[in-house]
Amino acid sequence: MHIWVDADACPVVIKQILFKAAARTGLSLTLVANQAIATPPHKNIRSLQVAQGFDVADNEIVRRAQAGDLVITADIPLADEVVSKACHALSPRGELYTKENIKARLNIRDFMDTMRASGIDTGGPPPLNQSDRQAFANHLDRLIAKAS
Questions:
Q1: What confidence tens digit (pLDDT) does each residue in 30-45 have?
Q2: d(CA 21, CA 85)
Q3: What is the DSSP letter of 53?
Q4: What is the spatial distance between Cα 126 and Cα 145, in angstroms, rounded to a whole number?
Q5: 9-27: b or e for each residue (b if 16 or more CB lie within 10 Å)?
Q6: CB within 8 A of 33, min separation 6: which ones?
Q7: How, if at all, do strands 28-33 and 2-6 pair?
Q8: β-pair partners for 2
Q9: Region 131-142: what's the mean pLDDT?
Q10: What is the pLDDT of residues 33-83, one digit of tens each?
Q11: By the 8 A CB rule, do 64 and 40 touch?
Q12: Which end of the chain is more exposed for a tag (fewer CB within 10 A), N or C?
């Protein structure tokens, strides 16, 4: 299993959890972003800088991810694409996207986008909290254990 991270908006604390997990397990970890991302000096951890532009990083992850890989993203359309490729997808809040729940999540996302476009202030997501970080770490550990 290779771990791919949609790194442009990934919280630092989640990246740190991923760095520790990759160093501990030896799994390959690649952070994909439109900007340079610093990574620890481990041979299995790297960053990939892609060109600026809408969905360029997402498209690169979709292109490179293979069945069984894990993609870390809060981007629902990206999660939908990789789940359809038989990848695992996990949000930084610890939500595991699956074939069973991704279409509903995509519909909610599209509905909220329509509301925002019509001028309704829907607010943003709440700040990442300790239970979100714990949920993320727990799901990550389970996925890594299944892959081993």
A1: 999 999 999 999 999 9
A2: 24
A3: S
A4: 30
A5: ebbeebbebbbebbeebeb
A6: 7, 8, 47, 48, 49, 50, 57
A7: parallel
A8: 28
A9: 96
A10: 999 999 999 999 999 999 998 899 999 999 999 999 999 999 999 999 999
A11: no
A12: C
What is the C-alpha separation between 68 and 15, in angstroms, rounded? 20
Distance CA(123)–CA(117), nearest Å, equals 13
Taking CB atoms within 8 Å and a gap of at least 24, the contacts of 19-23 are 19/45, 21/140, 21/141, 21/144
CA-wise closest residue to 37 among 4, 70, 62: 4
For helices 130-147 and 12-25, the axis angle rounded to 10 degrees is: 30
Q: Two tokens at 126?
A: 């709440």
Radius of gyration of the chain (CA): 15
β-pair type (96-97, 70-72): unpaired
CA–CA dist 144, 103 (Å, integer): 25
* pLDDT score recorded for residue 82: 97
